[in-house]
Q: What sequence folds into this?
């Protein structure tokens, strides 16, 4: 509906908002999953209630501050004559608090081991509502009005509002018995703050690492190339759909097994899940490897076939990502988030440097090389820390 150029404008603006929205949650979702799972194991409803209240206040403060900073900078940039990208960014500013609260609500539900329901607002409702809105526009409005990047962003905002409402209703309905009795909230603020700082840095570094290629590409290359690369990068994520889905399920189980000291079952769960993740990745990887250009043309249109080489490069990076298993989740859920932060910092530094060096010369293919390299490096470093801290092999290739 947008075409490569307007999709590039939309993607660049959305990348800036994502870069701001996730760190604005100050690492709270990961902390909430871990500590909610622990509180449920011990039956400590007061700690759970205190955690959820503390998390809500933290997200309100930090996302509100991020909103004000980005709004001020965007309006200041707009005053110097910037148009399409800035207008699209302004249209989506409210996504910063919306996405922050939705992610925290989903984290509360996942911490209760209702993993599928915890993913519902972010993974099903938001994209599902956006799809319905796009189809409605295509059917009833498109003949009368042009579909711009700014209007696409406004539809995304509407979908995000619906997702937040669903997350709130789910959390209210699924609150455990410990909370229905209205226990006195217990606040462990100093403990949570000390834990959330590295988790916040991990979140921020992860988002920078995820969007560095797109943002740097947008600084050096035209909007249509940004749009093609964004479509290619999204397509490559199909290779790790198993990793994304299974990792969400594993989070509370990792925390629970580590809390009760059952390392033998934890190793078995890690190995089984890593092999399942790799098996699920092989089919889309081989499909992309042999039919990548044809798939891009079929799904997005012939204008996007120029991204076939970048797609293959990213596919190799994502296959390596799948083969290492849920290394980040394993470290974060066992209290070793500082090791995740170190690995992410190394990978982000390499990613940014490689993008700055390669993108001006090779465009989207350079961005793909930088991203694939950083994915492999990040996973290799985290696997080292998992073996060192937990004496567990995280990859799919464990023998025995």
A:
């Amino acid at each position: 509906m947008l075409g490569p150029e307007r999709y590039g404008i939309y993607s660049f603006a959305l990348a800036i908002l994502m870069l701001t929205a996730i760190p604005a949650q100050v690492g709270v979702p990961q902390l909430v999953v871990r500590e909610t799972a622990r509180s449920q194991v011990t039956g400590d409803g007061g700690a759970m209630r205190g955690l959820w209240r503390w998390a809500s206040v933290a997200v309100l403060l930090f996302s509100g501050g991020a909103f004000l900073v980005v709004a001020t900078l965007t309006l200041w940039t707009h005053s110097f004559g910037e148009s399409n990208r800035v207008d699209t960014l302004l249209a989506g500013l409210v996504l910063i608090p919306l996405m922050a609260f939705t992610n925290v609500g989903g984290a509360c539900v996942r911490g209760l081991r209702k993993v599928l329901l915890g993913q519902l607002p972010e993974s099903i409702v938001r994209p599902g509502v956006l799809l319905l809105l796009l189809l409605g526009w295509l059917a009833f409005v498109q003949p009368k009005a042009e579909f711009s990047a700014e209007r696409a962003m406004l539809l995304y905002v509407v979908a995000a509002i619906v997702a937040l409402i669903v997350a709130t209703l789910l959390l209210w309905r699924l609150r455990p018995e410990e909370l229905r009795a209205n226990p006195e909230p217990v606040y462990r603020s100093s403990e949570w703050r000390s834990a959330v700082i590295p988790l916040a840095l991990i979140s921020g570094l992860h988002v920078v690492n995820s969007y560095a290629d797109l943002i740097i590409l947008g600084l050096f290359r035209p909007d249509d190339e940004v749009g093609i690369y964004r479509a290619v990068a999204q397509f490559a994520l199909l290779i790790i759909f198993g990793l994304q889905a299974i990792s969400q399920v594993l989070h509370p189980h990792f925390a629970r097994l580590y809390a009760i000291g059952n390392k033998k079952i934890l190793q078995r769960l890690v190995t089984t899940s890593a092999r399942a993740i790799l098996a699920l990745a092989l089919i889309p990887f081989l499909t992309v490897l042999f039919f990548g250009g044809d798939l891009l043309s079929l799904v997005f249109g012939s204008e996007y076939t120029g991204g076939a080489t970048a797609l293959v490069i990213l596919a190799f990076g994502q296959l390596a990502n799948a083969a290492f298993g849920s290394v980040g989740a394993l470290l974060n859920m066992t209290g070793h988030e500082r090791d995740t932060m170190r690995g992410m910092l190394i990978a982000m530094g390499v990613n940014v440097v490689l993008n700055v060096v390669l993108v001006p010369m090779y465009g989207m293919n350079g961005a793909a090389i930088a991203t694939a390299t950083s994915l492999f490096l990040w996973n290799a470093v985290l696997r080292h820390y998992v073996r060192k801290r937990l004496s567990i092999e995280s990859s799919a290739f464990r023998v025995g």
Summary: Residues 263-299 form the longest helix (37 residues). The radius of gyration is 21 Å.
